[in-house]
């Protein structure tokens, strides 16, 4: 994240460098000096000394960087060697030597369905709706919670709010089935008492997204609010004082102190969420699908899973994951670029 | 929470307008509604796990237990592997949390406060792992190759540094004024000392948050132990609980006998166990939050808005 | 918080200690089998012993330790074979097999269970298991136990035999059940024709049968929807004479062609009739989400007029309703639904399940012969006795030449029987009807049973209400085309099952259904049909 405090050029040149910014001093890098050939020898010697100095100055940083790199290499990058399997009809027992190379066959298979655009549309609809409703909700909740006066009440509400996170997907779906059932469910009882006939809401395509959103809210608000609560706790109290001295009421304080304080976190999480735009929470969608709502409930990940469900085609599954990753990275890069231009906050 | 209390006192210093009073009342009501919204299904789960079997079969249970039947819990707690697995899960969660926090801070510090050759590459190396995940089978083979198969350390090391956590912590570090680090460097401290003595104490809120995520992540993890653990003595809680549920479900979907008097008990057992297992899993996680909450306090000189 | 924790802990301890302490299971002391003096078998014994490793799916309450029950130590004493089984859970079994395979041939177990997406054909394709076709002369007992009519269930789709099966010689345990007290209240007899069934269903729809003042909440017919969305209204398919496979997708026509049910001459009529029934409110409005777990609340909730379920469940739910005040409630087993052409069919329990595959590792180490000879022994008289009855003098006695299990073993039905290690189904063997029935009755006779329990017995015994109506289900052959197109064209968002349910729910006309079905054939379903028939002709 770039430092949200923009410094003017003057400070950059003379004052203490801000975190993460390059120091520009005279001489610069040996690579792009514009000195004449006569001075080049002298300059390169000077440059080399500067380089060594810089490395020496940062020796403890390197002492931090290197162990992390070793960990990443061993445990994250070494396994990535197996991502090659996306281009093979990979047989687990035989390894790469015993497996046939098939090129882009798996990718073609994934992208060749005539219904592909329907699945993409379903995925995007659900995710954009989620982004609009479920994603900001924890933020609003955190702000409201922060404004509660009684400490005890605040603690109770917060602890209760993240209990739903622990309910496993299977139990959650069975709860949803129970509530929405037109024969034994709570909703049906309410409907009947109002004189209306209950409908099998789970089997009607129109209600699928709604059910998903509401259950998503239930599951996520409390848990996702934790980071916003901690960000709010990290806001300098003196800023609130200053605002009060300036005569701001509670609402203005929220607007001008709290929100800007957690905005960088929010934007960060937003960028990362955009990377998931073509993904979905697999278990929940899989369990909520049924033949009558599948026109809207079949998403990309469930479609990919279906292709390989009957027989575990490892190459196919890897190709699906790879495709998903590539799409996620692209989306994040775009979101990051836009965010850097617009709000000066970005992932990198 | 003294800082918050102090803030509350200061609220009262200025007269509250009617608008603010209305807002307060509405807020309390909203919170109460949310309380019910969150609590009802959870109470339902707890109640089913404790209710009489006939009520469970007839789906009559709402948010309090009807009749009392503890057979789910007696089955769960009688499992010989359960207590050992709780110990294993606790070990992985706590040790994993401490080591993970330390490692993530070490990873995030250079990104926030370092200016060195190769910084861009270092950033990319970490970020790339957020999206490109090799999958279960390669993870298994790597752990096996490292000789860590069937150890609890495999579980800890597998998710020691997660790019997501690095981003969150780095973003928080960036809001600490660089002058802090600068002056410490001038005083002759090396970066490790700065990290441990200065930065970490200033980052309590974010560390508490990430700690919560890590602990809960380890506690709830089913898939990784399934693949990496094979011997009984190393099993973690979720494995044992899942087996209990599966065994109950398969034995009730099979035949009992025509005359056995406790058949109805058996028939409802799998539902009760499924819910009871949830309760057993949930309780420790709920209990740790108050412990972590005291770290959610305001730091002394923080602020991401330029003062 | 701390108080709450300690209270909870105390409660847990209390519950644990208060619950009935299992005194010596089956009336037997701990490790009772060690005292038994078992001599090596005359028919099969390996000098010096042999260790066989295996990886399989465990379910139910059988003990998982080698020394947890009599079974495996006894096998070792009798045959010299030491089975070292790595029992895994069913959930995510596919991933567990994947990691085992990825570990290389040296680390493969000698025997492995297919499952979790790694069916016999897939394992064979991976090169992990061997075909047993050339070894059939070693396992005559197994072949005899399988029997002629089950041979087609034994072969994989490519025609080879890969597994040692487990055989269950017990009748089907699912049955049609009807609310007898509602029949009586309506003044109707047990329905025996299609018209009578419909009359009953329409009457249930129109009247307030459960007395709660609401006429609309009763469901005349409740049928289970399979987890994948394929198995739907199976019993009604049977009523129209369509003898479908387990997943309700495949059947064998009169002329012996193996094809999908949608090609059956009666399917159009079936679909039209069911569509009409749905529109009339006879078919369960929630039929697409009526998974097995959702069927039971309709029974205990006093809503279901008739249903097709596990025989035991009707007794359970009758008792539940009686316990909550409705004294007259009674679910009774009845014969399958009679269709408009007089067909009355119910699927027979699949007697043969693929169990162990032998891996290339065992072949490399030369263990195949002994393993197969062991399984031959397992299906012999001696092996059967050990599997079904335990050890003579401890768990059973021979009375008039018939094995009789001791009362202490069967008094709790199947619970203790299985916990003791008998009928170790995950390991596999030949489960005998005699043993099954003794557990079902647990020492009582038919006359001792209460009415609901008698109805349960009626529903599942081969001489009960379903006698003469059983049919053997055709297999679902996993040909290459099936594997390729199953996800997308059968279960997918625009697959044939989705179309079928949309048609039933009235969103498509029957003609539109068949038009779209034909379109699916062009996309690959025709290959599924063709390859399926080819394979079936080979293996039957």
Question: Summed up, what is this model?
Answer:
The complex is a heterotrimer of chains A (348), B (307) and C (540). Chain B has 307 residues and is mainly α.
**Oligomer description:** heterotrimer
N-to-C span of chain B: 23 Å
Q: In what range is the share of β-strand residues of chain C?
A: 5-15%
**Percent of residues of chain C in helical segments?**
40-55%
Of all chain pairs, the largest interface belongs to: A-B, 105 and 110 residues
Can you count the helices of chain B?
15
* Structure class of chain B: mainly alpha
Count of individual helical segments of chain C: 22
Give structural notes.
The complex is a heterotrimer of chains A (348), B (307) and C (540). Chain A has helices at 9-14, 37-57, 59-77, 105-111, 116-133, 137-146, 151-161, 169-180, 186-193, 205-233, 237-245, 250-274, 282-288, 294-297, 300-309, 314-343; strands spanning 88-91, 95-101. Chain A is mainly alpha-helical and 348 residues long. In chain A, strands 1-2 form a two-stranded antiparallel ribbon. In chain A, strand 1 (88-91) and strand 2 (95-101) form a beta hairpin. Chain B has 15 helices and no strands. In chain B, helix 5 (82-113) packs parallel to helix 8 (152-158) and helix 6 packs across helix 9 (163-174). Chain C is of the alpha/beta class and 540 residues long. In chain C, helix 12 runs antiparallel to helix 19 (451-460). Chains in contact: A-B, A-C, B-C. Chains A and B meet through helix 2, helix 3, helix 6, helix 7 and helix 8 of A and helix 1, helix 2, helix 5, helix 6 and helix 7 of B.
């Amino acid at each position: 994240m770039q430092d949200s405090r923009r410094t003017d050029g003057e400070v950059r040149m003379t004052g203490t460098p801000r975190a993460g910014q390059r120091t520009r001093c005279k001489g610069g890098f040996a690579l792009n000096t514009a000195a004449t050939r006569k001075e080049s020898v002298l300059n390169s010697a000077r440059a080399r000394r500067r380089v060594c100095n810089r490395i020496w100055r940062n020796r403890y940083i390197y002492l931090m960087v290197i162990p992390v790199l070793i960990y990443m290499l061993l445990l994250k990058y070494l396994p990535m060697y197996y991502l090659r399997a996306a281009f093979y009809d990979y047989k687990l027992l035989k390894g790469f030597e015993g497996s046939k190379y098939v090129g882009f066959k798996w990718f073609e298979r994934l992208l060749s369905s005539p219904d592909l655009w329907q699945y993409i549309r379903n995925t995007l609809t659900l995710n954009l709706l989620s982004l609009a409703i479920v994603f900001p909700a924890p933020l609003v909740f955190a702000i409201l919670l922060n404004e509660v006066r009684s400490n005890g009440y605040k603690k109770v509400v917060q602890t209760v709010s993240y209990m739903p996170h622990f309910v496993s997907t299977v139990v959650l779906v069975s709860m949803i089935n129970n509530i929405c059932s037109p024969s034994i469910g709570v909703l049906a009882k309410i409907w009947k008492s109002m004189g209306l006939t209950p409908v099998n809401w789970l089997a009607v395509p129109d209600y699928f997204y709604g059910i998903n959103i509401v259950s998503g809210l239930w599951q996520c608000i409390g848990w996702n609010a934790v980071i916003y609560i901690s960000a709010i706790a990290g806001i300098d109290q003196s800023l609130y004082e200053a605002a009060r001295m300036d005569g701001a009421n509670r609402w203005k304080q929220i607007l001008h102190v709290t929100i800007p304080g957690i905005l960088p976190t929010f934007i960060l999480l937003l960028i990362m969420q955009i990377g998931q735009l073509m993904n979905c929470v697999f278990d929940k969608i899989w369990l909520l699908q049924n033949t009558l709502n599948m026109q809207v409930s079949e998403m990309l990940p469930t479609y990919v899973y279906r292709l390989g469900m009957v027989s575990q085609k490892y190459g196919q599954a890897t190709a699906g994951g790879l495709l998903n990753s590539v799409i996620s990275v692209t989306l994040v890069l775009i979101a990051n670029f836009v965010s850097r231009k617009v709000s000066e906050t970005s992932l990198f | 929470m003294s800082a918050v209390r102090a803030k509350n006192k200061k609220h009262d210093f200025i007269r509250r307008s009617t608008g603010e009073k209305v807002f307060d009342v509405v807020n309390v009501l909203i919170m109460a509604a949310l309380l019910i919204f969150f609590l009802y299904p959870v109470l339902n789960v707890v109640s089913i796990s404790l209710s009489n079997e006939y009520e469970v079969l007839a789906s009559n249970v709402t948010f309090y237990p009807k009749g009392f039947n503890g057979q789910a819990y007696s089955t769960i707690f009688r499992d010989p592997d359960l207590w050992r697995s709780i110990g294993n899960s606790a070990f992985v969660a706590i040790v994993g949390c401490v080591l993970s926090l330390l490692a993530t801070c070490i990873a995030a510090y250079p990104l926030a406060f370092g200016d060195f050759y190769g910084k861009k590459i270092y950033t990319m190396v970490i970020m790339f792992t957020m999206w490109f995940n090799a999958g279960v089978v390669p993870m298994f083979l790597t752990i096996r190759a490292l000789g860590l198969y069937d150890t609890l350390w495999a579980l800890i090391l597998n998710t020691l540094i997660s790019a997501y956590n690095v981003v969150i912590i780095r973003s928080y570090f960036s809001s600490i004024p660089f002058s802090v680090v600068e002056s410490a460097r001038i005083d002759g401290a090396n970066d490790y000392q700065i990290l441990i003595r200065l930065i970490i104490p200033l980052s309590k809120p974010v560390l508490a948050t990430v700690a919560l995520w890590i602990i809960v992540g380890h506690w709830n993890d089913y898939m990784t132990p399934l693949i990496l653990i094979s011997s009984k003595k190393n099993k973690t809680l979720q494995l044992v609980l899942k087996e209990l549920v599966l065994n109950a479900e398969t034995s009730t979907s099979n035949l009992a006998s025509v005359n056995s008097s406790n058949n109805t008990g058996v028939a409802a057992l799998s539902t009760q166990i499924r819910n009871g297992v949830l309760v057993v899993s949930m309780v420790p996680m709920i209990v740790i939050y108050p412990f972590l909450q005291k770290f959610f306090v305001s730091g002394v000189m923080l602020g991401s808005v330029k003062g | 918080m701390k108080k709450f924790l300690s209270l909870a802990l105390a409660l847990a301890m209390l519950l644990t200690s208060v619950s009935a302490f299992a005194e010596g299971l089956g009336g037997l002391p701990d490790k009772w089998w060690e005292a038994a003096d078992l001599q090596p078998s005359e028919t099969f014994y390996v000098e010096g012993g042999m260790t066989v490793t295996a990886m399989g799916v465990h379910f139910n309450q059988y003990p998982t330790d080698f020394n947890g029950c009599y079974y495996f130590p006894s096998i070792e004493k009798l045959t010299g074979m030491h089975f070292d089984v790595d029992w895994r859970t069913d959930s995510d079994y596919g991933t567990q097999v994947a990691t085992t395979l990825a570990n290389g041939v040296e680390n493969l177990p000698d025997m492995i269970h297919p499952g979790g997406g790694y069916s016999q054909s897939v394992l064979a394709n991976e090169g992990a298991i061997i075909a047993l076709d050339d070894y059939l002369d070693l396992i005559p007992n197994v072949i005899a136990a399988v029997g002629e009519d089950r041979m087609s269930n034994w072969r994989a789709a490519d025609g080879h035999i890969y597994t040692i099966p487990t055989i269950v010689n017990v009748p089907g345990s699912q049955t049609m059940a009807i609310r007898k007290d509602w029949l009586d209240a309506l003044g109707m007899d047990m329905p025996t024709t299609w018209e009578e069934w419909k009359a009953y269903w329409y009457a249930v729809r129109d009247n307030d049968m459960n007395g709660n003042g609401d006429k609309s909440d009763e469901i005349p017919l409740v049928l289970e929807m399979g987890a994948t969305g394929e198995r739907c209204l199976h019993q009604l398919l049977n009523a129209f004479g369509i003898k479908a496979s387990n997943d309700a997708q495949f059947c064998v026509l009169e002329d012996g062609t193996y094809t999908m049910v949608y090609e059956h001459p009666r399917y159009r009529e079936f679909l039209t009739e069911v569509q009409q029934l749905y529109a009339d409110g006879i078919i369960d409005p929630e039929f697409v989400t009526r998974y097995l777990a959702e069927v039971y609340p309709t029974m205990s909730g006093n809503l279901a007029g008739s249903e097709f379920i596990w025989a035991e469940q009707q007794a359970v739910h009758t008792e539940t309703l009686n316990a909550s005040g409705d004294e007259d409630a009674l679910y009774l087993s009845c014969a399958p639904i009679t269709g408009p052409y007089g067909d009355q069919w119910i699927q027979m329990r699949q007697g043969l399940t693929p169990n162990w595959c032998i891996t290339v590792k065992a072949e490399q180490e030369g263990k195949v012969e002994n393993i197969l000879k062991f399984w031959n022994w397992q299906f012999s008289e001696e092996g059967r006795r050990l599997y079904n009855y335990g050890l003579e003098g401890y768990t059973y006695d021979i009375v008039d030449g018939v094995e009789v299990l001791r009362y202490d073993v069967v008094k709790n039905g199947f619970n203790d029987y299985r916990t003791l290690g008998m009928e170790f189904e995950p390991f596999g063997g030949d489960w005998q009807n005699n043993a099954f029935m003794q557990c079902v009755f647990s020492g009582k006779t038919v006359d001792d049973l209460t009415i609901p329990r008698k109805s349960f017995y009626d529903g599942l015994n081969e001489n009960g209400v379903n006698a003469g109506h059983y049919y053997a289900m055709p297999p679902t052959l996993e040909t290459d085309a099936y594997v390729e197109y199953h996800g997308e064209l059968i279960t997918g968002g625009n697959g044939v099952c989705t179309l079928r349910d949309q048609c039933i729910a009235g969103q498509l006309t029957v003609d539109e259904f068949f038009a779209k079905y034909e379109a699916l054939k062009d996309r690959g379903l025709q290959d599924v049909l063709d390859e399926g028939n080819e394979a079936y002709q080979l293996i039957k």
